[in-house]
Amino acid sequence: MKLKEHINTLIAQALKQASITVDKVSVTEATKPEFGDYQFNGIMPLAKTLRRNPREIAEDVVALIDTTDAISKVEVAGPGFINIWLNPLWVAKRVEEMLQGERVGVEISTNPQEVIVDYSGPNMAKEMHVGHLRSTIIGDTLANLFSFLGDSVVRQNHIGDWGTQFGMLIAYLEEQSVNSMENLKDLEEFYKSAKKRFDESEEFALKARDYVVKIQSGDAHCLRLWQNFIDISLQHCEEVYEKLSVKLTRDDVRAESFYNKRLPQVVSKLQESGALQVSKGAKCVFLEGQETPVIVQKGDGGYLYATTDLASLWYRSEVLDANRVVYVVDARQAEHFKQVFRISKENGLVKESTNLEHIAFGTMMDKGGKPFKTRDGGTVKLINLLDEAVIRAKKSIREPQNHSEEELNTLAKTIGIGAIKYADLSINRESNYIFDWDKMLSLEGNTSLYQQYAYARIMSIFRKYDGEIGSEIIIATPIEHTLSIALLRFEDILLRASKDASPHQITTYLYEVATLFMRFYEQNPILKEEIDEPTKQSRLALALLTSKVIKQGLDILGIEVVDRI
Ligand code: ARG
To answer: Whose CA is nearest to atom 9 of ligand 1?
Structure first.
């Protein structure tokens, strides 16, 4: 149900009848219950142009608002705000409809977009780090969200599998005759040893350099070694994906190397459009207003990260026919994306109408406020981090005796992985975020466990009740009214979160819903004997809808629910 849009239309009609023209009417949720359910604050800015007292204008508009259907009451407040109350009978009908539909009241988009979500993007030379964890979690959620709303989504894992360091790595791989993930357990260590060898032995360094040239010129032996290395490294990532249950697969991999043959074409395209200049032997693009140019080809013929991204932008626009391309990458790459987006648009690599968005996120910090590292300053192995989450979650289960060992393990995984994901998704993605085990596994506050408990509580109600669940909603108490409106806002929230590519809007909303439900449940007993049948049925229906919204919301976040904890 597009609730806000519906109310906006009613207000717009009244404004029209009052012969007041506005570009766009936008009501907001009321900040306090005494201000009603929604507020319209758009009168004040009109007063100046109309040269009238805003309160008087508001009085005129209020007299014209239709209060026979969705809206039951309107009032002018303060200097010219309009407070809006929704009609409980109308709200009840909409909740009933939401309950009956298959998609928790959320329509499939009538204007679906072709969306590319570029996320995860680990570098094959090294261990995947926490920045990639954030990208993976946020990106997967956005891809889920867009596809739930009806967009056609293409996931792209832009892995870093090309560059000079691979010469050194495959030379070392060959020397050590490593051929499986088993004997390449620790990429970070492997990299360090290879580097050490490179620095110490002139002969090895020569070979490593020679191998770089050989991979680039397509030498079969070196390419085989390289492919073997990438396979092993990618398996490490896939282990993380598997544990996180994110939906990335091998098919989604479009590695940097995939764009190799397109790189010379990027350069010629830029040459044709007159964007290229040679500076100190390198081919560069100077962007207006910027001092340092973007280098697309070095003097020695080598290409750069930016060139590959230009090629991938081109590919995504031309071959994948994208309308929207979303890059879920660390905020520290903001400048890079600004530049490649500009170059690709200004030189026709990407259609003017394609939306290019850098979905930036902040750094993951430890409790002391420092970037998240191991004690000796190294990269935290993500696999260990995820395993620890599951172990901690298992310890946090309050009544383990109620579960079999197998159940406990599944539960621990659902809670632990859910906690890691939710903690990341629930803060504004652009902020740095503090990784705090105790907070993320807490039952108090805005956590996944809180949501999972709320859901399990509702399921326990239904375990105690084996009758029919009615479909008629009766809104008799203020909390039923508030909870119902919150549930109706689900589609508004998802649409907004999709537009802003901002998962934390969903978690904030889910927290509100779960909290309202808890309050509703305290104040409105459901299964007590003295409750009359229609009231019981209605409350059960509200509980059921709440569980559906929580489940669907968490599903978009890639978090599972459980029937009992
Ligand atoms: N491999 C990059 C890194 O680790 C991230 C890739 C992001 N995607 C892109 N199209 N540049 O920083």
So the answer is: 158
pLDDT score recorded for residue 49: 85
Cα of 121 to ligand 1 centre, how many Å?
5
Q: What are phi and psi of 342, to 5 degrees?
A: -65, -50
- Show the tokens assigned to 511: 């927290």
Answer yes or no: CATH 3.30.1360.70 is held by domain 3-86.
yes
Strands 114-118 and 152-156 come out as parallel
Which pTM does this prediction carry?
Answer: 0.96
Identify residue 35 by its one-letter amino acid code: F
Q: Which residue has the tokens 């108090």?
A: 444
Point out the ligand 1 atom lying closest to the alpha carbon of residue 312.
10
Query: What sign for the dihedral angle of Cα 547, 549, 553, 558?
Result: positive
Q: Is 160 in the pocket of ligand 1 (CB under 6 A)?
A: yes
Closest among 235, 7, 226, 247 to 144, alpha carbons compared: 247
Cα angle at 104 between 103 and 107, to 5 degrees? Answer: 55
Establish whether residue 123 lines the binding site of ligand 1, counting it when its CB lies within 6 angstroms of any ligand atom: yes
Q: From atom 5 of ligand 1, which residue's Cα is the shortest distance away?
A: 121
CB 425 within 8 A of CB 554: no
Instruction: Point out the ligand 1 atom lying closest to the alpha carbon of residue 132.
Output: 4
Please tell me the predicted confidence (pLDDT) of residue 117: 98
Least Cα distance to 59 among 39, 45, 79 occurs for 79
- Could you tell me if the CB of 121 is within 6 A of ligand 1? yes
**pLDDT tens for each residue of 226-255:** 999 999 999 999 999 999 999 999 999 999
Spacing of C-alpha 314 from chain mean position: 24
29 - beta bridge partners?
A: 38
Whether the CB of 161 sits within 6 Å of ligand 1: no
**Contact 542/520 with Cβ under 8 angstroms?**
yes
Q: Which residues contact 68 (CB under 8 A, 6 or more apart)?
A: none
**Ligand 1 centroid, distance to 140 Cα (angstroms):** 15
- In the beta sheet, which residues pair with residue 75? 83
**Band (470; pLDDT cuts 50, 70, 90):** confident
- Of 234, 329, 337, 344, which is best to mutate to test ligand 1, by the most ligand atoms within 8 angstroms of its C-beta? 329
Domain extents in the chain: 3-86, 165-248
Note the pLDDT of residue 291: 87
Express each pLDDT in 60-110 by its tens digit.
999 999 999 999 999 999 999 999 999 999 999 999 999 999 999 999 999
